[in-house]
Specification:
- By secondary structure, this protein is mainly beta.
- It has seven helices and 23 strands.
- It has a seven-stranded antiparallel beta sheet. Strands 15-16-23-18-21 form a five-stranded antiparallel beta sheet, with no helix packed on it. A four-stranded antiparallel beta sheet has the order 17-22-19-20, with no helix packed on it.
Length: about 325
């Protein structure tokens, strides 16, 4: 094992959005002069938005640098065979001061053909939600493509959408092809495939400061929507302390809920990197003589070659992610 491998942190990449707010600054203590921070990209290998290491001996190197120099030590042997020098996941925090657009993401096949990209299967963990805030996930009844297009044309799409009232801890699995949107007042953690491909189908008729509407992608979206998806997007999970509780398992990632109230010794047997996202409290992760504190709103990457490590906390709630 490479003894210089340690819990790696990255400098957040903050994104100004028309619908963004202040919570990423006021609650998660992200530093920025941007007026409306909608997203904090915690770990990213998206072209043009590559994360930079912010701690330890590797400080200043990019995630792409690490992939080239460490390869399987970082990703795991099997992941490296599949992804080579591409990091498969994108980790974000999102603050919706206003409703996001109604949107969906294409599957791997469409994304590859049209955008030379992965698809965008994702999941949401609600970290904070204002009273009566909601998410939009799928339709409120079984519909056909023809019915959908009629509602789109009549500007009555909202009438057939499924609104979900949410609270802290609620978790949703958003598969490709599923129409969705984050509602005003919701702050969440998002785990997704590395992709920035989004098909926007309705944007509430809003305009920017120059009076321009944002681009819609309805011609592309109609082929990408899956009108036959099962109602399986709500995620139920156990909350046993000091144990990894299964939340989402899919071909692209596994996410567990981990509440740590002691000194927890862990062994990586998965041939994969591990990502820990702190959604509440704080913890310390230690390995190879290194220790890194993880506070609410922070994310750390443990390379695959780190086999034994400890997580110490009295009150941390973490999302544990691997591929």
């Amino acid at each position: 094992m490479n003894k210089t491998l340690y819990p790696i942190k990255f400098t957040p990449i903050l994104k100004d959005k028309i619908w963004g707010g202040e919570k990423l600054k006021t609650i998660l203590h992200k530093t920025s002069d941007l007026p409306n921070i909608g997203e904090s990209w915690e770990i990213s290998d998206v072209e043009g938005d590559t994360s930079i290491v912010s701690n330890g001996p590797l400080k200043g190197q990019s995630l792409k640098d690490l992939l080239k120099t460490m390869g399987p030590d970082l990703l795991g042997q099997q992941n490296y065979r599949i992804f080579e020098d591409k990091f498969p996941l994108l980790i974000k925090f999102i603050d919706a001061k206003e409703d996001l657009s109604i949107q969906l993401h294409p599957n791997d096949k469409l994304a590859a053909e049209r955008h030379n990209s992965f698809g965008k299967t994702e999941m949401w963990y609600v970290m904070q939600a204002d009273a009566d805030s909601n998410l939009i996930v799928d339709f409120n009844k079984k519909i056909t493509a023809e019915t959908y297009l009629k509602h789109l044309e009549d500007k009555t799409l909202v009438d057939i959408l499924n609104f979900e009232k949410v609270k802290k801890g609620d978790t949703y699995f958003i598969e490709v092809g599923r129409v969705h949107a984050i509602g005003a007042g919701v702050m969440l953690a998002e785990i997704q495939q590395t992709s920035d491909v989004t098909y926007r189908v309705y944007d509430w008729d809003r305009v920017d400061d120059n009076g321009n509407e944002r681009e819609l992608h309805n011609d592309l979206a109609i082929d990408a929507i899956d009108f036959d998806m099962p109602d399986n997007f709500r995620v139920s999970y156990s909350k046993t302390e000091n144990a990894s509780n299964a939340m989402v398992t899919c071909p692209y990632f596994t996410t567990n809920y981990l509440e740590v109230t002691t000194n927890l010794k862990k062994t990586n047997k998965k041939d994969s990197f591990f990502i820990y996202i702190c959604v509440e409290g704080k913890a310390t992760i230690s390995c190879n003589g290194y220790s890194e504190e993880l506070k609410t709103g922070e994310t750390v990457l443990l390379p695959a070659d780190v086999t034994d490590y400890e997580i110490t906390s009295e009150n941390a709630k973490l999302l544990e992610v691997y591929v």
